[in-house]
Amino acid sequence: MWLVGVGLVLAGLAAGTCGMHLIRKSELKSQSGELCIAAGMFLNLAIGPALDVSGYAFAPASIISPFTGFNIIANSLVAPITLGEQVTRCRCIGIGIVFVTATLSVFFNKETQTQRWTLERAQEVLLQWRVTAYGIVFVLWLAINVRVLACCPHGSAIRGFCLGAISGSLAGNMWCTRLAAVFLKDCFNGSCGKTWGNWLPWLISAGAAFFAIANVPYMQRALRKYEALFIVTVFQGSSILTNSLSAVIVLRELDGEPWWKLLGYFFCIGGMIVGMLVLTFGEEDDAVKTSRGDSHHAGLVKSSDSKSSAIMEFVHVGAKILGTVYYAGAGRRLHSRNTGTGVKAT
């Protein structure tokens, strides 16, 4: 069944990449720009996440994440045709390193995945110190990127990397999607009331929705200034990196494996980082600007996307999603209470 999961996630990635290309296209064509960006946002906010949730119901994150590297190659083949972008030497090397190391990591996964997620097991796994440590490091990583983003001028390759890395890192936290998909699958098995009567599935679903939505503004901002061959590779590489790390640290999908498998898996993760660094440092400012171009003066102006505005985006999106989930859960409890009261009165 894991092949079904991989296929659904790859379909979601294809939809997401098409959405990114449409967003990039909206900056290059003034006449059909609004239509392109609307279609691109729809693919990234609706179709892609829906296919992801379906896919992660059938396969673990540690198996799915390496296969997502094929999306990088597909993007490098399609972008020159649809967007007229050039595959430079550094781009080719960086894309190749990320793809090869992401694909090789599949050989260090478990041969058979026998883990079955239940509500009790999810509570046991998520209430561990390693999950807290992962969360702290992840927040620090985002904070560093936001800080650098606020200081870098428009057109800088470092700025483009930060935008792609923030977006990809947020999107790559698929451990929430994995657990939410398993809990949603329980509804089809007749145990919906028992599972969703607990607070944990609601919190995990809120996290999955947050990571799926919060990455889009940064991805959109990046594609408005930088070419898809650069941004999509950084985005996808960061997503694979975060997905792989969260599968090992949060979901503990490689616990009990021999040391050489863990070493090989983390070696591949290190290779992905090297590939993204090669891509970033080899990216020239004039090669990543839009065809409209920026003036010399505009290139020296610091980003208008300050650190405070970037943080407010997280707060705004998170508040909306948590509020929606809270009221949905409160409504469910109120309905159950009223039903119970009615039964007693009868």
TrEMBL record:
It is a multi-pass membrane protein. It is found in: Membrane. The chain crosses the membrane at residues 6-23, 57-78, 90-108, 128-149, 161-184, 196-216, 228-250, 262-282. GO terms for cellular component: membrane. GO terms for molecular function: magnesium ion transmembrane transporter activity. Keywords: Membrane, Transmembrane, Transmembrane helix. Its main location: membrane. This is Uncharacterized protein. It comes from Symbiodinium microadriaticum.
